[in-house]
Design a protein that fits this description.
By secondary structure, the chain is α/β, with parallel strands linked by helices. The chain is built from 11 helices and 10 strands. It has one domain: TIM Barrel (Alpha-Beta Barrel). The strands form 2 sheets. Strands 3-4-5-6-7-8-9-10 form an 8-stranded parallel barrel, surrounded by 6 helices. Strands 1-2 form a two-stranded antiparallel ribbon. 49% of the residues are buried.
Length: 320
């Protein structure tokens, strides 16, 4: 799998990134550790050598699962994790990083990201300068190699950039959720900041496996996703999927592979894709084999807008 440069750093990432929110188990249903570990390893074997996690995914549980899966190949992978919004004071950032280093069983984190801006989820407001000072210190110490942000607006990225080098933005972005195209993507392109899209399959919608009458298991956070639970949105999703299916058939790929291929063809964009097992991880990796012409990209783009054009301006998909 051909690698890309992360921002202006010396780090090389794969355009498809293994996502491990599900490995933390919290807010997910029917997750088996052994299957997730096999999935992470299968992704690595298929060429996906960049893995994304976070301290908040199961309070470090996801990070520990990643360590189990990839400990013996640490030097061959790029590990990305995140510090949560309630740990953004100087000392808290340092402590959180040390916990993540221990959980990941490593001496350094390749990409360390601010998971949500200060104040999110009723967290205490901390000046971005204070948080960035801590991140810069960690970088000087060699504990982290690059700094990223997640769920930041273009203005928030610009403010953070006054105090240090920001090499990536991790936003929600998919064919069915495209808020960043208005302001954040142009800013990232102009400033050579990599976009690392999460929920790049719209939490499974773009796989086509959720039919019109699907109901989620108790505790699954997707029941709060507005693309799922708002009837009109969900109906538009089904309409768009029906229009995408013939294109996938023509390209001899799955709907998921088509959606990933479209996403990684967007400016500066790489796709985080989770997997519950080895089969899903291997299939995700094959999306890099799907080559789309300009006209095919434009056709897929137009179909995606069936879903996205009627949506309001809220940045994230969930009503938590």
């Amino acid at each position: 799998m051909e690698k890309r440069t992360l921002g202006t750093s010396e780090i090389k990432i794969t355009p498809i990134i293994m996502g491990t929110w599900q490995a933390g188990k919290k807010m997910w249903a029917d997750i088996e550790d052994s299957e997730v570990i096999k999935g992470i390893r299968a992704a690595f074997d298929a060429g996906i050598t960049t893995v994304d996690t976070a301290e908040v995914y199961g309070n470090g549980y996801s990070e520990r699962i990643v360590a189990q899966a990839l400990g013996d190949v640490r030097e061959q992978v790029v590990l990305a994790t995140k510090v949560f919004a309630n740990h953004l004071k100087y000392d808290q950032v340092i402590e959180a990083c040390d916990r993540s280093l221990k959980n990941l069983n490593t001496d350094y984190i390749d990409l360390y990201q601010i998971h949500w801006p200060s104040g999110a989820f009723n967290s205490e407001i901390v000046p971005i300068e204070e948080t960035m000072n801590a991140l810069n210190k960690l970088k000087q110490q060699g504990k982290i190699r690059a700094i990223g942000v997640s769920n930041f607006s273009s203005k928030q990225i610009e403010e953070a950039s006054q105090y240090g080098q920001i090499d990536s933005l991790q936003p929600p972005y998919s064919l069915f959720w495209r808020k960043i195209e208005k302001a954040e993507m142009p800013y990232c392109v102009e400033n050579k900041i990599s976009i690392i899209a999460y929920s790049s399959l719209a939490q499974g919608l773009l796989t086509g496996k959720f039919g019109p009458d699907h109901k989620f298991a108790e505790g699954d956070h997707r029941s709060k996703n507005r693309l799922f639970y708002i009837k009109e949105n969900y109906e538009r999703v089904q309409t768009a999927l029906e229009k995408l299916r013939p294109i996938a058939e023509t390209k001899q790929c799955s709907l998921a592979q088509l959606a990933i291929a479209w996403l990684i063809a967007q400016p500066q964009t790489n796709a985080i894709v989770g997997a519950r097992n080895a089969e899903q991880a291997t299939a995700n990796a094959k999306a890099t084999d799907v080559k789309l012409s300009e006209s095919e990209l434009a056709e897929i783009d137009a179909i995606g807008r069936i879903v996205t054009d009627p949506l309001d301006d809220r940045f994230v998909m969930w009503d938590f």
